[in-house]
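User: Could you go from structure to sequence for me? I need the amino acid at each position, not a summary. Structure tokens:
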């Protein structure tokens, strides 16, 4: 009998007010229910937001280093639970075990990193124009956050958001993807075990329209952090803008690897296979376009195709598996449709292009690694995010054309270039309009202590993760304090000017 999971509101584990539930399935074995999660609605959201609002003052007044100690304790529990959480990620979302463990590792890294921020949350102290006056800027929390996450990194992305929100002194209502509710619950259990007070983290399970919408629309929610598709994220941006609420969005990508004639081809092929088919192509940074300079095109395609064809599909828990299933049925359907569009628009299918139902694939949502060549930059498969194991190869004549192709999409998350020419690498680094640029490495594999996010339709607002310009800018607002200890009215220069 699968385990039943609950919402977490005001320190209590509770079912949805309606009593309704949803099943979370294993995409590699769709007859296996991983857990039963609540299907919540506006009333549950309301209770959670009320709890977060009541807990806010106490939490914001808890010294940041003490908040950091709780996050440090969470990091230790994540470490203890890493193997269990990693397996769960694989079972609920489908990625192979090494990547499932990586998802859990991100939570460990982020919790330690943000714990340290408890002793660093710094502003500026500068000198005044006047005697006997001092001034500083400090970071203060924004209040109650709504945090909305996708299914593709079911532990890592919640960790990015939750750890940053908490260290800054915010309280929160976390609404995970309904496809990965079990991982989300286990994630929150760790936070509770680490000692977070009631009402500080709240978890409400459910669908986007039934829980996400009332959460972002709730008048007591001060700000929202969203990671997911452009379709949903852009609607949220528009709604919050009208209500004058702050939002940070991290959305889609149409990432590309450039390979120049002088590149180390073996390295580039490896990078393309990993970027294109790692996590079954379901990474916001997946390399779904490979832009090849004409001189190495044929040789590269031959080697790329051979390596991709050798990938073993199957249950991500099995050691021999390279590529797991797509995460759910809609994904399988969407990928199949895009492949048909690619064929119709005249791209040449050289590998895959079908649902896999053989052997280890028979029980789940598997799609064969797929490569198109002769892809024109304006074709649908080269423009839209497919979010599956489908790679489009585009031929170009030179670096300038390659950069134009990479930049010629609405998204701007990640790009990469393989070359031995230092000048070409520097030019690409300067001119690629993406939030992340990799030199001689694939488009995936960001580290948590630098900001993560993209340009154009990929995102709005401060970036995720650490470092200057990272998520602390989203989870705090600035307050400037002027203190005059002269005992008399002193006017700043703005008010004391005489004609010259
Ligand atoms: P999605 O937009 O369908 O769902 C994301 C979350 O939003 C889920 O929790 C969902 O329930 C919720 N939601 C859906 N409709 C909503 C609504 N009307 N109001 C409020 N919330 C709503 O995305 P997904 O399929 O879960 O994830 C895949 C997408 O996420 C891809 O586009 C991928 O590129 C993107 N992604 C981006 C990043 C990044 O950092 N840029 C990282 C991971 C994933």
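Assistant: Here is the amino acid at each position, in order:
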């Amino acid at each position: 009998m699968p385990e039943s999971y609950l919402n977490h509101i005001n320190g209590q584990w509770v079912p949805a007010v309606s009593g309704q539930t949803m099943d979370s399935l294993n995409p590699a074995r769709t007859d296996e229910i991983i857990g039963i999660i609540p299907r919540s609605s506006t009333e549950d959201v309301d209770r959670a937001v009320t709890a977060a609002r009541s807990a806010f003052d106490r939490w914001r007044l808890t010294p940041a280093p003490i908040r950091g100690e709780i996050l440090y304790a969470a990091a230790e529990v994540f470490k203890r639970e890493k193997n269990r959480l990693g397996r769960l990620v694989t079972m609920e979302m489908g990625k192979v075990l090494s990547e499932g463990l990586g998802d859990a590792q991100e939570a460990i890294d982020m919790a330690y990193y943000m714990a340290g921020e408890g002793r660093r949350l710094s502003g500026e102290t500068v000198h005044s124009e006047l005697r006997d006056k001092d001034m500083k800027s400090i970071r203060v929390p924004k209040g109650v956050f709504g945090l909305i996450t996708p299914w593709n990194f079911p532990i890592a992305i919640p960790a990015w958001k939750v750890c940053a929100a908490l260290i800054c002194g915010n309280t929160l209502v976390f609404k995970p993807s309904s496809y990965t509710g079990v991982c989300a619950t286990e994630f929150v259990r760790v936070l509770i075990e680490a000692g977070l007070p009631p009402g500080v983290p709240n978890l409400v399970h459910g669908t986007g329209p039934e829980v996400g919408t009332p959460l972002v629309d709730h008048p007591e929610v001060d700000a929202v952090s969203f990671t997911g598709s452009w379709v949903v994220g852009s609607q949220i941006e528009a709604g919050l803008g009208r209500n004058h609420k702050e939002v940070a969005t991290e959305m889609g990508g149409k990432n590309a690897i450039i390979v120049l004639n002088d590149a180390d081809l073996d390295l580039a092929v490896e990078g393309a296979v990993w970027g294109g088919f790692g996590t079954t192509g379901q990474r916001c940074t997946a390399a779904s376009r490979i832009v090849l300079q004409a001189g190495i095109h044929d040789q590269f395609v031959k080697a790329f195709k051979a390596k991709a064809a050798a990938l073993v599909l199957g249950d991500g828990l099995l050691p021999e598996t390279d590529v797991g299933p797509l995460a759910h049925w809609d994904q399988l359907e969407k990928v199949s449709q895009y492949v048909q569009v690619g064929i119709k628009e005249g791209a040449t299918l050289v590998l895959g292009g079908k649902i896999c139902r053989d052997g280890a694939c028979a029980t789940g949502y598997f799609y064969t690694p797929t490569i198109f060549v002769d892809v024109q930059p304006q074709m649908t498969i080269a423009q839209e995010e497919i979010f599956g194991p489908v790679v489009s190869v585009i031929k170009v004549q030179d670096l300038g054309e390659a950069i134009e192709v990479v930049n010629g999409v609405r998204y701007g998350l990640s790009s990469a270039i393989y070359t031995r020419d230092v000048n070409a690498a520097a030019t690409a680094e300067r001119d690629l309009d993406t939030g992340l640029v990799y030199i001689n490495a694939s488009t995936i594999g960001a580290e948590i202590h630098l900001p993560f996010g993209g340009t154009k339709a990929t995102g709005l607002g401060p970036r995720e993760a650490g470092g200057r310009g990272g998520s602390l800018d989203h989870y705090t607002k600035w307050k400037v304090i002027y203190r005059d200890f002269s005992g008399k009215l002193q006017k700043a220069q703005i008010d004391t000017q005489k004609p010259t």
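One structural detail worth keeping in mind: The pocket of nicotinamide-adenine-dinucleotide is lined by residues 148-153, 175-178, 207-209, 212-213, 216, 227-229, 232, 236, 250-253, 284, 385, 387, 413, 458-459 (CB under 6 Å).
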